[in-house]
Design goal:
CATH superfamily of the largest domain: Metalloproteases ("zincins"), catalytic domain
Order of helices and strands: EEEEHEEEEHEEEHHH
Number of strands: 11
CATH topology of the largest domain: Zincin-like
Shape: globular
Number of helices: 5
Helix content: 25-40%
Structural class: alpha/beta
Radius of gyration: 20 Å
Distance between the termini: 32 Å
Length: about 260
């Protein structure tokens, strides 16, 4: 189990709570090369995140979680990073994190949202979509990194709420037209390791990052996932089904590959 790597490590505790958070540092071997790993525990973090870049693997964990839950997430994120580096060493390019500015316009596909940032005196940060505005209310006293994390998390939640019914309707439309297979649910989230996923039971997961892409490319990913209801693999038979529905699918695969580092929150 990968987490056995952590058993003998010692946490580095900061002198003050608002300074550098608890962290662990060590190295793992991938394809014969040593890759630095740093795990940072942050009290003001909303979610867990892994970044792979030229500096190695950075895993950022919410310190509000129970220890067992933290271990489970670290194990999963480290396993994913190690597998990805093994398959694609070029992933040592990092996916950026957007810095949001009050009043800026966030363009997501064919939609535009005005970012409105305010500060409140509570310990909780929230956000909502009002007309074409994403209204973010940040707790006062957050560090710049914590503000960036909070904005990224809250904007992604707002966009999921906005786009999920739109995407679900389109998913049903494509399924009814081309596949006619049982389709149970759609979940959207800020996934950085995939564009879409479909289970054998018809549960589809789509990354909210896909909404930055052109509508035809979004259709390709939905068709790709629906085709898994016919063949739950990437066999020649699977790709034949995809090509029958969308003959130019390779163009959209290339678009996603070329723009992978441009679509982020």
């Amino acid at each position: 189990m990968l987490f056995s790597l952590f058993d003998n490590l010692t946490l580095t505790k900061p002198k003050k709570e608002d300074e550098t958070p608890l962290q662990q540092e060590f190295e793992i071997t991938v394809n014969g090369e040593s890759v630095p790993v740093r795990i940072v525990y942050e009290h003001q973090r909303f979610n867990n995140r892994v970044t792979v870049n030229k500096n190695g693997i950075l895993i950022r964990i919410s310190s509000r979680q129970q220890k067992d839950e933290q271990r489970k997430h670290i194990d999963t994120l480290l396993k994913w990073a190690k597998e990805k580096l093994g398959d694609k060493p070029e992933l040592l390019d990092s996916l950026p994190q957007r810095t949001y500015v009050n009043g800026e316009i966030l363009k997501v596909g064919d939609y535009e949202f005005v970012i409105s940032i305010h500060y409140n005196d509570t310990a909780k940060s929230t956000a909502k979509i009002f007309r074409n505005n994403i209204v973010i209310s940040l707790a006062k006293g957050l560090t710049k990194d914590a503000e960036a994390d909070a904005c990224s998390y809250l904007v992604s939640k707002c966009l999921v709420k906005f786009f999920q019914p739109i995407v679900f309707a389109r998913l049903h439309e494509l399924n009814d037209r081309f596949f006619k297979k049982p389709l149970h649910s759609l979940k959207m989230k800020y996934a950085t390791s995939f564009w879409g996923h479909c289970s054998r039971t018809g549960n589809v997961v789509i990354s909210i990052r896909l909404m930055f892409a052109p509508s035809r490319t979004i259709d390709y990913v939905l068709i790709h996932e629906l085709a898994h209801l016919v063949h739950h693999d990437h066999s020649p038979s699977f790709w034949k089904v995809v090509e029958q529905v969308m003959p130019d699918y390779r163009t959209h695969e290339k678009h996603l590959t070329d723009n992978h580092l441009k679509y982020y929150l």
